[in-house]
Specification:
The complex is a heterodimer of chains A (393) and B (224). Chain A has 393 residues and is α+β, with helices and mostly antiparallel strands. Chain A has helices at residues 2-14, 16-52, 64-73, 84-93, 118-122, 143-148, 196-203, 270-279, 292-335, 337-346, 350-392, and strands at residues 56-60, 82-83, 96-107, 110-115, 127-130, 138-141, 156-158, 174-181, 192-195, 206-207, 221-224, 229-231, 250-251, 259-260, 262-267, 287-290. In chain A, helix 2 runs antiparallel to helix 9, helix 2 (16-52) packs parallel to helix 11 and helix 3 crosses helix 9 (292-335). Classes of the chains: A alpha+beta (393), B alpha/beta (224). The interface between A and B is medium-sized, with 21 and 26 residues.
Chain lengths: 393, 224
Amino acid sequence: MTDSLYLAWRYIRFNRIKTITLITCISLITFLPFALKSLLAASEQQLMSRAFTTPLLVGAKGNSLDLVMNSLYFSKETPDFINMKATDKIANSNLAQPIPLYIRFHAKDYPIVGTSIDYFAFRKLQLASGRHFALLGECVIGADVAYLLQLKIGDSILSSPENLFDLAGTYPLKMTITGILENTNSADDKAIFVDLKTAWVIQGLGHGHQDIKTIKDPTAILNRSQNAVTTSEKIRQYSEINKNNLESFHFHGDPSIYPLTAIIAAPFDSKSATLLRGRFLSKNSNLQIVRPKEVIEELLANIFKIKNFFDAIVLIVAIAMILAVLLVFSLSLRLRQKEINTIFHLGCSRGTIAQLIAAEIFIIALFSGLLCWLALVILSHFQEEIVYKLFIS
Amino acid sequence: MVNIKSLVFSYGANNFRLEIPSLSIQSQEKIAIIGPSGSGKTSLLKLISGILLPQQGHISINKISVNLLPDASRRDFRITNIGFIFQDFELLDYLDALDNILHPYRISTSLKLTNETRDRANALAHELGIQNKLKQLSNTLSQGEQQRTAICRALLPKPKLILADEPTGNLDPSNKTKILEALFRCSDKNNATLIAVTHDHELLNHFDRVINFKDYCLPETDND
């Protein structure tokens, strides 16, 4: 058998272009179903693990999937807004701990998660270095954000405007990094956490500027009355919050109607969970309460329906591929008739010819298997990223 | 050594017919077969080696009826007892010269490839002047070098019968005698019988006996 393998190897080396093409085709067709299976298993694991740890989610009535995907995985699709009154409603019910979320803005394509400090305890997020945010304008970043943007404690990161062409829109806010989270292999690794108030500052609901009481420049003050001061655009707005200007930051309007995208409700027990769900069943309410697990299960059911369709396609392609490979081998045998005749003329048996061909098939199958395995190893390395891009973001 | 009796072989489609009532070749004899193209010289070598089977008649080598052996035994007999130098060399493009020489050992369980075999292959290559070409792929060798490689392959298993189809056909005049002498030397060393088909009439005096094929065959078309 070793001689057959040696001769087969020499033949394969001599016809390397043909062999590489064949190996690539076989590897690809073998890789596809395994890759799909692996990606789906990873997506199921990623989606379900987070959904399982988030018992209830309160948000605006509408697409529950958008609500869950935005709140759990920080997807870019923002659900309709609710306001802080909903947080008070949950807190006053004494049935669950509310953790407000405002996930709307981004910095360098990473989501800015406006939340309360309770979020870290709820998700069991540990700091790898630094401390939690304490002041307005401070942020804590996920492990991937720190690694990919090469950021460290004390560095700053600028929020991105929502729309470059909207002059009246949000202005960038320079946020100071006070903490870096440990890696959790979850969406938290790719997020920037700020206090809710910082998120509202990014939106423009809160702002800081020069003290208008002490400004002497007449072109900066358009009108000054007993109750109000009207300023021109000459007044300098702060795009960074530091200890020198922190005092000047203030909010306008009623904080109870400030926007949120969702509230995680962590019920104290299963009875509380049931009662809380009942409180949000009213048809007149503009709020909905969902169990993320159910929403994700529904999503996965749809994904697996698509997977079955993919499996069928892959099966058909695989059959076509096997037939093509058989054709290639039979044509190759025809082309090699002279060589086979030589081997016969020398005195070789039919069994040895079969052994030679089997050795070639074995080597091609072995290399195809190795290439497929290598591709799967590479895939597993980037799996998390691919799953995030394909199914989450 | 080789006995042929009442041999009849024909290619049905080409109306080629070879008839040899009787032919006897002694052990260690060096026979040259000459004859016009298409007279069946190559066919005779293939019949003796068992590559072709006659419709009638009897071929025996060392009292073994080659044409009556079962297929597997006939192949086994051929690879261990007969060294065949093919007219078009029949080397494998994807093997280098050394691997072509060792090829019979890799495809037969009857021949064992040992270090001694490799040493012998190197010695043979040296004797035939291709010692520097052993690592070259056969399709990169000149015609003469390919022919010498084919001769080495045929001689390596120390066959008792060497069948050579135009063994000097692709060589320049100075090399023809050299190769033929080497072939004779190797067959003498192994006490082998040599049957060679040739068109080179100037080489005939090197052989013990010359068989003119026009006495045996009834060719109607060109087959060689």
